[in-house]
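Tokens in:
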């Protein structure tokens, strides 16, 4: 009987996936982090130009999108104390009911000052009420009523500069109606006023 010699099969080599070096892994993580950060920034609309006193605040944009605003902090346009007798109430839509500003108690004849540097956007009468508004750049406007203007349209004003005198007509007693608009949309002036901490976006821990 003929014997058949069996050749031992060569051991199979296991395929090992080469892992990137530590330096490459660090570079990869940094790249992924930057891409994620860029995607977040693209999803957030930037506000007005920032300067040394700028403060980032969170705001809700159209369709509930979260956005960041960068704008100089505002000084209160009336002397302290400045109690808010009615807060800002965001309307559900552009034509819905709401309270598009703050009502701040003050005496008739109180001198109203500019909350930040800007240019007089409007100074006149709307319907039967004197109104004044300032353009602070970056699509951000502030408005004041009922205020008899001491400045003219197109005039540059500085933070703290007198811009008008408070009149009667908005509240049962004397009060200033302070408004803020960002790119045509009403937002709460409290987002910009000094003495209030801005909202900060924090990472979510799981």
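Residues out:
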């Amino acid at each position: 009987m003929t014997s058949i010699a069996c050749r031992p099969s060569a051991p199979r080599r296991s395929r090992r996936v080469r892992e990137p070096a530590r330096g490459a892994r660090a570079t990869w993580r940094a790249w992924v982090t930057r891409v994620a950060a860029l995607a977040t920034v693209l999803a957030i609309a930037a506000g007005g130009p920032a300067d040394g006193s700028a403060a980032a605040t969170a705001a809700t944009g159209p369709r509930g999108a979260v956005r960041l605003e960068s704008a100089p902090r505002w000084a209160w346009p009336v002397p302290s104390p400045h109690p808010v007798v009615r807060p800002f109430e965001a309307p559900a839509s552009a034509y819905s009911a709401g309270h598009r500003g703050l009502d701040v108690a003050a005496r008739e004849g109180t001198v109203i000052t500019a909350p930040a540097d800007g240019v007089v956007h409007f100074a006149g009468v709307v319907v039967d009420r004197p109104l004044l508004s300032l353009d602070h750049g970056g699509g951000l406007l502030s408005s004041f009523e009922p205020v008899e203007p001491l400045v003219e349209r197109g005039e540059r004003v500085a933070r703290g500069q007198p811009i008008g005198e408070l009149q009667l007509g908005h509240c049962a007693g004397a009060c200033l109606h302070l408004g803020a608009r960002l790119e045509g949309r009403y937002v709460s002036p409290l987002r910009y006023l000094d003495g209030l901490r801005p909202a900060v976006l924090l990472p979510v821990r799981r």
